[in-house]
Amino acid sequence: xxxxxxxxxxxxxxxxxxxxxxxxxxxxxxxxxxxxxxxxxxxxxxxxxxxxxxxxxxxxxxxxxxxxxxxxxxxxxxxxxxxxxxxxxxxxxxxxxxxxxxxxxxxxxxxxxxxxxxxxxxxxxxxxxxxxxxxxxxxxxxxxxxxxxxxxxxxxxxxxxxxxxxxxxxxxxxxxxxxxxxxxxxxxxxxxxxxxxxxxxxxxxxxxxxxxxxxxxxxxxxxxxxxxxxxxxxxxxxxxxxxxxxxxxxxxxxxxxxxxxxxxxxxxxxxxxxxxxxxxxxxxxxxxxxxxxxxxxxxxxxxxxxxxxxxxxxxxxxxxxxxxxxxxxxxxxxxxxxxxxxxxxxxxxxxxxxxxxxxxxxxxxxxxxxx
Length: 371
Known about the structure:
Layout: H1 12-15, E1 33-39, E2 47-60, E3 63-82, E4 89-90, E5 96-97, E6 100-101, E7 107-108, E8 112-114, E9 119-121, E10 141-165, E11 170-183, E12 207-208, E13 215-224, E14 229-238, E15 242-246, E16 263-264, E17 267-268, E18 274-275, E19 279-292, E20 296-305, E21 320-322, E22 362-370
Parallel strand pairs: 1-10, 15-21
Antiparallel strand pairs: 2-3, 3-10, 4-5, 6-7, 8-9, 10-11, 11-12, 11-13, 13-14, 14-19, 15-18, 16-17, 19-20, 20-22
């Protein structure tokens, strides 16, 4: 199968007469290979440096305190980007825009940006506006997507752990972590997306990581009730993860629609600028065990998950939200509540499944026979 791409040869549009399709390749139409995928010759596995320090102190016979610090820095993480592009022009709003060819085959850089359409402006030597197409150093192929090991990440975390036995029957465990995670690509092991904003300046994507959580904690407890019952509970909570604001269409003239970011108040919205809602989950379990002789036990349990029915909405594994372009004159989208055209801009809708913490509230009855 051969793909005809209007980004490579816009004249294809003039040859189409919908709903009729093309039965053959028209003469003179450019038909490059749509995309090539490769591994960098110097690709290496990631290298990680880790350091940790822990202080443990027995406060009293029933209470133990543990404080720890962890530092992790990793080099050589996988990233993928298109190498078949000319160097971009950096517009005053910070957006890298890749050049196009004019009618004479001259390479033309973007001269401005249309905030209404969200598209860069190209003009030729006659000051005529050009409808851009992706200019390729190698015109015989489209994207040349190379996987390389050049991304970097770092993690710094301070954790506090307190274990307290209040009585012979009740024990409580508390964990809290304050941390920062940075990287310049969170696309590890994802071979389907090229998210680099500027392929000639990959550090432009340096920001908080997709997995960055500022405050993360949990409290758990076990209470041995009379008559052989055991009540246990655990509460998880953390502040919101970052998410990427994207336009949903190509604003950079690189033939790629997953790396384009919206313009807000005259500047690009940097990677992972915004945060998803926080997370909260409370689970509880009541267990009754019967001893049947020396080697056999029969246990019955009642479990409840996400008892408060917390929504825990977010943007899924992609951690992205489509914004479109900024509305004129500071107008506010009445549905999204943000000055962007998309009705779903910044509105989380994905929820965890029932097989994950924080999913829909549910109850469960169980029985277990050990022999």
